[in-house]
């Protein structure tokens, strides 16, 4: 591909909507946009090469499509990390929790540490990044929040009953 001359605009592919990992790209997932430079992104002229390919990573609406994001083997979740979906009951997470938030998932009330007066060791929080946050299917029902965590934390995450989600600052390493 030859870089465009100064002032020329190129037509490139942009995501029309969020696309999850493994989704087969279809015409309705993509749209064209003009940019000053098409370097490192997929040109609109290559649309046919993209259609029918699987997303290797989660793709965000309105972002430019890059060559390594589709086709071949999945590249997501990255090595050493796994996605865990949590059913979050009403009141156990802010309704503003969105994809990209850095969060800590903690044992909520009624979990193992709070049952029957038994003294149990506190369960360490599971820290990760939200990859999806769905609204509840019915009023008052749980919403599903999917979090990318270190694979070593998956067993701990799976054991959390009545999980609570706390949004952490984007930068830093502190956890509750």
Describe the structure.
This protein is mainly beta. The chain contains two helices and seven strands. It has helices spanning 47-50, 154-158, and strands spanning 10-15, 30-35, 81-88, 102-106, 126-133, 143-150, 164-167. The chain has a five-stranded antiparallel β-sheet with strand order 3-6-5-4-7. A two-stranded antiparallel ribbon has the order 1-2. The longest helix has 5 residues, at 154-158. Mean pLDDT is 85; it is low at 1-5.
Number of helices: 2
Care to count the β-strands? 7
Instruction: Please tell me how large the radius of gyration is.
Output: 20 Å
Helix/strand/pairing class, anyone?
mainly beta
Low-pLDDT runs of 5+ residues are 1-5
Give, in spatial order, the strands making up the sheet with the most strands. 3-6-5-4-7
Taken from the alpha-carbon principal axes, the silhouette is elongated
**N→C terminal distance:** 49 Å
Mean pLDDT: 85
How many strands, what sense, and barrel or not for the largest sheet?
5 strands, antiparallel
Share of residues in helices: under 10%
**Which percent range describes the beta-strand content?**
25-35%
Helix-strand pattern, N to C?
EEHEEEEHE
Give the secondary structure arrangement, pairings included.
Blueprint: E1 10-15, E2 30-35, H1 47-50, E3 81-88, E4 102-106, E5 126-133, E6 143-150, H2 154-158, E7 164-167
Antiparallel strand pairs: 1-2, 3-6, 4-5, 4-7, 5-6
In short:
With 176 residues, the protein is mostly beta strands. It is built from two helices and seven strands, in the order ββαββββαβ. It has helices at 47-50, 154-158, and strands at residues 10-15, 30-35, 81-88, 102-106, 126-133, 143-150, 164-167.
């Amino acid at each position: 591909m030859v870089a465009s001359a100064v002032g020329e605009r190129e037509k490139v592919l942009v995501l029309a909507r969020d696309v999850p990992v493994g989704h087969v790209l279809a015409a309705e997932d993509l749209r064209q946009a003009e940019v000053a430079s098409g370097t490192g992104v997929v040109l609109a002229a290559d649309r046919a090469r993209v259609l029918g390919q699987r997303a290797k990573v989660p793709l965000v609406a309105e972002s430019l499509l890059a060559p390594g994001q589709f086709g071949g083997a999945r590249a997501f979740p990255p090595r050493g990390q796994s996605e865990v979906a949590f059913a979050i009951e009403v009141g156990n997470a802010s309704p503003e929790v969105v994809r990209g938030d850095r969060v800590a998932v903690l044992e909520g009330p009624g979990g193992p540490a709070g049952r029957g007066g038994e003294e149990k060791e506190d369960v360490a929080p599971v820290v990760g990044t939200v990859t999806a946050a769905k609204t509840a299917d019915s009023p008052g029902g749980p919403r599903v929040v999917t979090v990318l965590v270190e694979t070593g934390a998956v067993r701990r995450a799976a054991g959390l009953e009545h999980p609570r989600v706390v949004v952490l600052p984007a930068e830093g390493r502190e956890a509750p």
